[in-house]
Amino acid sequence: MAQDTYIGAVDQGTTGTRFMVFDHSGKVVANAYQKHEQIYPEPGWVEHDPEEIWENTQDVIQEALGNADLSADQLEAIGITNQRETTLIWDRESGRPLNNAIVWQDRRTTDRVEKLQEEGKEGWIREKTGLEPDAYFSATKAEWLLDNTDQIKLQRMRPDDVRERAEQGELMFGTIDSWLIYKLTGNHITDVTNASRTMLFNIHEMDWDEELLEEFNVPEATLPEVRPSSDENHYGTTDADGFLGEEIPVAGALGDQQAALFGQTCFDEGDAKNTYGTGSFMLMNTGDEAVESEHGLLTTVGFQRSGEPVKYALEGAIFITGAAIEWLEDMTLIEDAAETENLARSVDSTDGVYFVPAFTGLGAPHWDQRARGTIIGMTRGTRREHVVRAALESIAFQTRDVAEAMESDSGIELTDLRVDGGAVKNNFLCQLQANIVGTDIVRPVVDETTALGSAYAAGLAVGYWETVDELRDNWQIDREFAPEDPQNVEQRYGRWKDAVERSLDWARDGGE
């Protein structure tokens, strides 16, 4: 391995696309970021333009390399990490999407999921996929796209023509990782972690499931090939005549939360991390066993390296955490996220205010698609500081809901929790989290662990790093937060549960 070579990582998230370049010690040497448009065609619908995401991906790669004065041939490999479940369908011949991508947050298929529940298919789906049937996952999104193409302006075909073309393999289904791998290499590939989030993939047989494909009417001919997250055979290389002018192996891909698990070096059974982004996602490595959840958690694929068995994980998906802080901004209660720490510290408590940010329903462990956001316990004396503090507490309380479920399912007691993502820069939140969960919160030096995880996966595949021990050595603690002065945390947690109860099953009978 030459001294001046690096690994690149495309981190394609919900709000924007980042490209980071890492050196052998896991240090960031280049970084560029661009936001993309959030499209809300109807209430509860969320879309992204895949072409815009691809344009931005090319831009941030070139910008990061340019800023750091690096040339593309110094990249030994590229890894990809992505917002999971976001779904698109594109034309095999032209490479053009038929429509916007339907984002993981989108609720348009709620009725379809409720029909599955009425038909008693929840257990059947959970058994195969490890997932709780929800509009969050890709299966109902793909079904909707194939059935509703007539509603999509870009499309001139009749819906039956779309179905026909899909059956013949002229259309391609994919999550964002597949889209980017396709645009970078020309190959139609996904990795095991992203496949495990589609609700079309059997995580025990590690293959697309015929019965599920039939249930959701998604033709097998549209599906990508499923490969390990870190693949010595590579997914392909960039085109020497393309925008980078070099053939660079694309050799690793992980859905964003699994990438963070990998980047936090949670390689052993019982290791756990929580990522605070738009939502929060807590994952625990359960080793070679797919642990079935009794408490509303998801069983998912953690990662797979070439020639090695799959590692499974338990996951608690909390839909809204960082987005609750964005909402405070939208409502002009704060000017920016950094302000929340001082505002929250300026009051001793929330003064009895609880904020349940169920803007898009509630995920684990409640799984209520019709829950909606609520702020409860306000009096005439309630000030914005109380609401801001309640928003931060909601992040910590939701994490405790998941942590308790995880300990019950796995039988493993959490000794510490590795944290990453934008919100962990907030020391008040980290301390609050330690107090409320009652465990040490450990913040690493490099908090962009999602990008780092996909870089590690790609780098291991091409031999840039030889062993995972080298990666463990790279991992460094920035700060640890031990539980202290919990301020009647048990009583407050009880009241939190009462507040959640009030938010459930709200969006009914036109109450959307």
From TrEMBL:
Superkingdom of source: Archaea
Keywords from the named record: ATP-binding, Glycerol metabolism, Kinase, Nucleotide-binding, Transferase
Residues involved in ATP binding: T14, T15, T278, G322, G422
Record-annotated Carbohydrate kinase FGGY N-terminal domain positions: 6-263
Domain Carbohydrate kinase FGGY C-terminal, first and last residues per copy: 273-461
Pfam families referenced in this protein's UniProt entry, alphabetically: FGGY_C, FGGY_N
Annotated binding of sn-glycerol 3-phosphate, by residue: T14, R84, E85, Y136, D256
Catalytic activity: glycerol + ATP = sn-glycerol 3-phosphate + ADP + H(+)
Signal peptide segment: none
BP terms from Gene Ontology: glycerol catabolic process
Single GO term (MF): ATP binding
Enzyme class: transferase
NCBIfam families recorded: glycerol_kin, PRK00047.1
Family: Belongs to the FGGY kinase family.
Protein name (database record): Glycerol kinase
